[in-house]
Specification:
The protein is of the alpha/beta class. The chain has a single domain, classed as Aldolase class I (TIM Barrel, Alpha-Beta Barrel), CATH 3.20.20.70. The chain contains twelve helices and ten strands. It has an eight-stranded parallel β-barrel, surrounded by six helices. Helix 9 packs parallel to helix 11, helix 9 packs across helix 12 and helix 11 packs antiparallel against helix 12. The longest helix has 16 residues. The chain is globular, with a radius of gyration of 17 Å. The N and C termini lie far apart (about 50 Å).
């Protein structure tokens, strides 16, 4: 691995081999999202706990301070919306010049395996790798399922992750599922866990992240389960404990509750 790429990878995967990414790119297809109406305000109190922030160039330029120390993973695919025909009909939206100009540590692109736009989105990934590799920029592939949530099983996700790795992704973001070890063990590059819809309760978040880490994921890329939480800082601190301090769900939940109580006094 060349020095530049290794340096960028070290910013998004920490010396312990783990990572905690904060996903705030939802507006690229959802528009204004509850508690993400102003990304800058939502992100600022959480950045001390996370290793990288996943955002679009528009939000980065308009709402995130250039003086921030947190690494940036740039969302570089899009072209669809919740009110359009098919969320899978994405293209690469951001040029290599923009990626370099914004000093991104890595970029992220969605791949919709099994959709009508499978070929297109796999080639989006391939072309992005071809463009980014000469500059040492890691590419994170996101195994997206659009609105078809039933696709989140180990057989499908293992297929999707393996294809992304074979095409050249440096990291793959995917959903946690039953038999998650099958997904991780068949993927030759690091796997990070996506959050998906907001969970029923706070403990459930800590539990699936802990189990995913036990099953071989190197970390998470979570959004709604943090910034839509009633105490986002407490949840971010608890997840940091699970990821980087090997806390159990019970220990992390105690940390969540104590952090929440300290802030309320």
């Amino acid at each position: 691995m060349d020095w530049g790429k290794e340096n960028r990878m070290s910013k998004v995967i920490k010396p312990d081999g783990k990572c905690f990414y904060l996903a705030m790119d939802h507006g690229y297809f959802q528009g204004p999202t509850t508690r993400l109406e102003n990304v800058g305000q939502a992100a600022t109190p959480l950045l001390e706990f996370v290793d990288a922030l996943f955002v679009t160039r528009g939000v980065l330029r308009s709402q995130i301070s250039p003086k921030v120390n947190t690494s940036i993973i740039l969302r570089v695919s899009g072209g669809t919306s919740m009110v359009g025909g098919d969320l899978a009909n994405e293209a690469v939206t951001t040029s290599i010049d923009e990626i370099l100009r914004l000093n991104a540590s890595a970029v992220g692109v969605s791949v919709f395996v099994g959709s009508d736009y499978e070929h297109q989105t796999i080639l989006n990934l391939a072309n992005l790798v071809n463009i980014c590799e000469p500059y040492g920029i890691p590419v994170m592939a996101v195994t997206a399922v659009g609105l078809e949530l039933e696709k989140r099983d180990a057989r499908y996700l293992a297929l999707a992750c393996r294809i992304c790795a074979e095409i050249g992704a440096s990291v793959v973001k995917t959903y946690y599922c039953e038999n998650f070890q099958k997904v991780v063990n068949s993927c030759p590059v690091p796997v990070v866990i996506a959050g998906g819809p907001k969970t029923e309760n706070d403990f459930e978040v800590l539990e699936f992240v802990y189990q995913g880490m036990q099953d071989g994921a190197i970390g998470v890329n979570l959004g709604r389960n943090i910034w839509q939480n009633s105490q986002p800082q407490a949840m971010a601190r608890a997840l940091q404990g699970v990821i980087h301090e090997s806390l159990t769900p019970n220990e992390a939940f105690e940390l969540y509750q104590s952090y929440e109580q300290e802030k309320s006094h």
